[in-house]
Amino acid sequence: MRLAVDAMGGDYAPQSTIEGCQLALDTYKDLELIIIGDNEKMAPYLKKSKRVKIIHTETVIEADDSPVKAVRRKKDASMVQAVQLVKDGEADAAVSAGNTGALMTAGLLVIGRTKGIERPALSPMLPTLNGDGFLLLDVGANMEAKSSHLVQYAIMGDIYMKKVRGVENPRIGLLNVGGESGKGTELVKQTYDDLSKLSLNFVGNVEARDLLEGAADVVVCDGFSGNLVLKSIEGTALSLFSLLKEELTSSLKNKLAAGVLKPSFKRVKDKMDYSEYGGAGLFGLNAPVIKAHGSSNKQSFFSAIKQAKIMHDEAVIETIRKSIENTKEAGE
């Protein structure tokens, strides 16, 4: 597999991205990388390899750049070049930890949507208390949605969980304010009816408070609601660990207790660590494009690469395309 990597996107680039790439090369002997970035800045972290090609550029799409303007005006930016390589057939997939909106825009404008998909979805894996995690679609690619969009999210999520996460019969949940079928907006009520007619393992409505309990393997919603859920989970986790750290270092007694409980706290932190789940897939494009977390360390960037590789190896995009076609034919 040939993977295009934007080495300059993210808070800790290029060190974290290059170190993540090296970990991936050590793990997957059939992996070839095309790394795009500033040679001078990447040099301290790069190791020579026959499986690595470097494309030099000093142009980067910044976090505060306007997505559409940046993609159109910065054609030589590391992110845009990575996506263009996929379009040109020189790479099978792309990974970036850079500007989310710009990556989505580049994916749509350059690679294009999967045939039959009306709207793509930005879809991260989020942690659950049992360690399995759940896939949330959508978290911001489309702030407004139709029922047909959410149905397609469910189909894409079902395929991803089967092919990439190895879940035999994924439970599909619909984010709502209550478990009853008659609750929620008109969008949610219509989607509930539409999902009930499919052969998916639809478990009905799920509430936000039950997500971390593992209420479903795939949770679908519009991008506005999904983004609120995502930011709430991230913010709550960060605040909780901050409070624990403050309390456990507030006195000598607490410090001694923290020393004894340190292994237990580490297990809790590891279980809730997003870095083990990979990045957010841009589902609905013609090739795998993975958005790694902006604050990715080498482990989380490696996990994003792993996600892209499995999606390619398991032909997830082609499976999604066929499933959407079959669903349309069945509805005609």
UniProtKB/TrEMBL annotation:
The record's annotation in Pfam families points to:
FA_synthesis
At the highest ranks, the source species' classification is:
Bacteria, Bacillati, Bacillota, Bacilli, Bacillales
Among NCBIfam families, the record links this protein to:
plsX
- Enumerate the catalysed reactions: a fatty acyl-[ACP] + phosphate = an acyl phosphate + holo-[ACP]
Question: What is the protein name for this chain?
Answer: Phosphate acyltransferase
* Record keywords: Acyltransferase, Cytoplasm, Lipid biosynthesis, Lipid metabolism, Phospholipid biosynthesis, Phospholipid metabolism, Transferase
| InterPro entries assigned | FA_synthesis, Phospholipid_synth_PlsX-like
Which domain of life does this protein belong to? Bacteria
Which HAMAP family is this protein grouped with? PlsX
Give an example GO cellular component term for this record: cytoplasm
What pathway is it annotated to? Answer: Lipid metabolism; phospholipid metabolism
* Listed PANTHER family: FATTY ACID/PHOSPHOLIPID SYNTHESIS PROTEIN PLSX, PHOSPHATE ACYLTRANSFERASE
Compartments, record wording = Cytoplasm
Give any single GO term for biological process. Answer: fatty acid biosynthetic process
Quaternary structure, per UniProt, is: Homodimer. Probably interacts with PlsY.
